[in-house]
Amino acid sequence: MVTDAYFFNLKIKKTMLEAIELQPASLAIWDSKYRLKTATGENVDQTVEETWQRVALALAEVETPANRQMWAERFLYALRHGAIPGGRIVSNAGAGAHKPATSTINCTVSGIMRDSMVDILDMVREAGLTLKAGCGIGYEFSTLRPRGAYVAGAGSSTSGPLSFMDIFDAMCRTISSAGGRRGAQMGTFDISHPDILDFIRAKREDGRLRQFNLSCLITAPFIEAVKKDQEWALVFPANVQELENPDIELVYRPWPVTDLPYRTNGLGEVACRVYRRLPARRLWDMIMAATYDYAEPGFILIDKVNEMNNNWFCEEIRSTNPCGEQPLPPHGACLLGSVDLTRFVEFPFTPKATFAWSRFQEVVRIFTRMLDNVVELHGLPLQPQAAEIARKRRHGMGFMGLGSTIILMNMTYGDAASIRFTEQVAREMAIVGWETGVELAQEKGPAPIMEELFTIDERMMAKRPKMEQDGIKIGDRVPGKVLLAFYSRYLAQFPIELKKKMALFGCRFTHHTSIAPTGTIALSLGNNCSNGIEPSFSHHYSRNVIVPGRKTKEKVEVLSFELLAYRKLVNALADPYATDEAARLPANFVDASAIAPEDHVEIQAAAQKWIDSSISKTINVPTDFPFDRFKEIYLKAYESGLKGCTTFRFNPESFQGVLVKNQDLANTTYRFALENGESIELRGDEEVEYDGEVHSAANLYDALKEGYYGKL
Questions:
Q1: pTM score, two decimals?
Q2: What SS3 class is residue 255?
Q3: Which residues pair with 540 in a beta bridge?
Q4: How confident is the model at residue 5 (pLDDT cuts 50, 70, 90)?
Q5: Percent of the chain clearing pLDDT 70 (strictly above)
Q6: What's the CA gap between 481 and 559, in Å, rounded?
Q7: CB burial of residue 483 (10 Å; 0-12, 13-18, 19+)
Q8: Which residues of 449-466 are buried (b: 16+ CB within 10 A; e: fewer)?
Q9: Strand pairing partners for 647?
Q10: Crossing angle, helix 597-608 and helix 627-639, to 10 degrees?
Q11: How far is CA 240 from the centre of its chain?
Q12: Measured between alpha carbons, how far is 194 from 187 in angstroms, rounded to an integer?
């Protein structure tokens, strides 16, 4: 750590972080993804500043004519000082003259996929239009009959949900999303579906479902069955013939589809056929083994998602956007934005290092209004999506650069101080955001759902028994703003005066916060500050990026923002791999692989308390991390009240990740079979000329193995 005198001698009063120029990789990503260009490729935005001016002016157009100039200036101030809208907003806001068929919305979820060929194909069409507009999309596939089930209309058996997922995968592969972005999909699958084993194993096949992220919908009863070593039933709604067959075991289970010819009970549960039973721990170990080897499927604790949903009284959530930070109802949509926390650090690396809380609150307040304005410019291609976002006005403000900021302020990611800081950041963002939402409701009107009346039924009363204690009875009609303000379990921790105002005036939106994986936004506009809630992956590493015209991904060298800052402000020779004392980095310069998984969970739990949607977080573990300890991460996530958990373990035999440490590549050998029957072995970091291009051996191997060589 350097002394105050060092900084004062350099005439640095608070921070020079803003003066650090964007590194070449950052400018390249801005140029390829977020810089507005004409149809012929000519630059419209000449600089990043012009990108911010375009976005500020576009979002200010929503304001009344008399106030547009003022808000354009306020929005530009926020953009210059750490408010970073989601990629679709930066790329597409104010770009209508050059790409009119694009959306400013990052996250969507498909409508419910009913178990019929017509409905499935309708969903393929909807998904194609959504991806074409530049939005990511999630689907639940466990509403489809299991493989081998009889289809009366066709007089044959079905090939099962996984085969239909292949159709969506192929469709997505052919659509290059607007603004230079590849299509992104999430496929979720219930842990009790008879084909869950096939879903878990799906990505063991080379090249299969590579346009998808996959996640299991994990329930509390399943986790308890694992802990108690009980059997677990795999079930699907019974058809008419099965209902009449006394030899078929039936159980009633909650199900997302109740309007097909299924039998239901008084609680709305559907009669399901038990296909088989197996030990819950066996199923658990299969999930853990697949995740250990292939980083998928992910792990969505769907009971917790629905329990904590602000719209608990009118939604049942069964899927998320592609990265999991936005659990959404059918046809749900949400826009994103992140605050770059590094922009609020004063006196970095010194004993006086502080966080500018008042300035942070000011940016959050302006940014909340900015994101709310995006709803008016959504550009969603489907009417049900437009209706859903207009009714609830969801947005997800989060932050990025947490890991970088922790280092700038002399903390270590996962220590007690960093956990307290993480919770305080999330809390300040939440309270300021919801206060602003109530003020906007008074100025512009609340989200329409706030004024709707909802009839209280038995299921709602069972979810929130406190309503009966407060004198609400079954059959009463209660406004959405009251059900949200006083009976949302998330909002229970908020100041009572704020909740009273919300119940009186409503709020401009039903959801305000989520933490997204800000990969290319953090790398480009954040100058490679750490991604979202994460620590920096490494301080000097390679990023595999898609470059138009290349046959494989290109390996780009990048430095973490905190390393750039340390070299600029403290020691120009600093090196993360240095053995020389003079070039060695401080001990708190840890990266993702050096942090205990339990500390990752603690950080996520600290933030989740104040995040009303969800958090996309990846727990990086070393390649040699013990499997039994790996399984404990997921149980800790459940016990900590998280809504989901994702891990990544570098496994070169299976796939290449987007982010790769150079030392991992140097320590990995790839074998290539030649046409003459011979083979050659190359280190992952070696360059090889093949088919007229120079590739890294690792990227070439991955492209050939996965079948995307020449198809990017």
A1: 0.91
A2: coil
A3: 559
A4: very low
A5: 95
A6: 47
A7: buried
A8: bbebebebeeebbeebee
A9: 619
A10: 20
A11: 40
A12: 16
Cβ–Cβ < 8 Å for 608, 641: yes
pLDDT at 485: 98
Angstrom distance (rounded) from CA 334 to CA 108: 7
Q: How many residues does the chain have?
A: 712
Tokens standing for 179?
Answer: 């603004």
Q: What percent of the chain has pLDDT over 90?
A: 73
Domain ranges of the chain: 4-98+335-408+433-446, 107-320, 449-505, 668-712
Three-point CA angle 506, 477, 610, nearest 5°: 40
657 pLDDT tier (thresholds 50, 70, 90): low
**Gap between the Cα atoms of 149 and 377, Å rounded:** 44
Q: Which two tokens stand for residue 545?
A: 């990026």
**Cβ-Cβ contacts under 8 Å for 672 (sequence gap 6 or more):** 679, 680, 681, 682, 697, 700, 701, 704
- The upper half-sphere exposure of residue 99, i.e. CA atoms within 13 Å in the direction of its Cβ, equals 27
Phi and psi at residue 272, in whole multiples of 5°? -120, 145
Nearest to 337 by CA among 679, 584, 85, 604: 85
Q: What Å distances lie between residue 366 and 56, 75, 347, CA to CA? A: 11, 7, 25
**Per-residue pLDDT for 10 more than 50?**
no
Angstrom distances, CA of residue 108 to CA of 154, 327, 437, 518: 32, 9, 22, 17
Please answer whether residues 699 and 552 qualify as being in contact, where contact means their C-beta atoms are separated by less than 8 angstroms. yes
Is 94 in a helix, a strand, or coil? coil
First to last CA, the chain: 45
Decide: 322 and 137 in contact? Cβ < 8 Å: yes
Q: What is the greatest pairwise CA distance in the chain?
A: 87
* pLDDT category of residue 705 using cuts at 50, 70 and 90: confident
Burial class (CB in 10 A: 0-12, 13-18, 19+), 548: exposed
For 443, residues 6+ apart whose C-beta sits below 8 A from its C-beta are none
What is the tens place of the pLDDT at every residue in 45-57? 999 999 999 999 9
Cα separation, 705 vs 207, whole angstroms:
7
* Nearby residues of 279 by Cβ (< 8 Å), 6 or more positions away: 229, 230, 231, 232
Identify the architecture of domain 107-320 in CATH: Alpha-Beta Barrel (3.20)
Using CA atoms, how far apart are residues 369 and 75, in angstroms rounded to an integer?
Answer: 9
CB atoms closer than 10 angstroms to residue 474: 12
Q: What are the Cα distances from residue 575, in Å, to 338, 571, 579, 595? A: 29, 9, 9, 19
Tokens matching residue 344: 């609020």
**CA dist., res. 632 & res. 623, Å (int):** 16
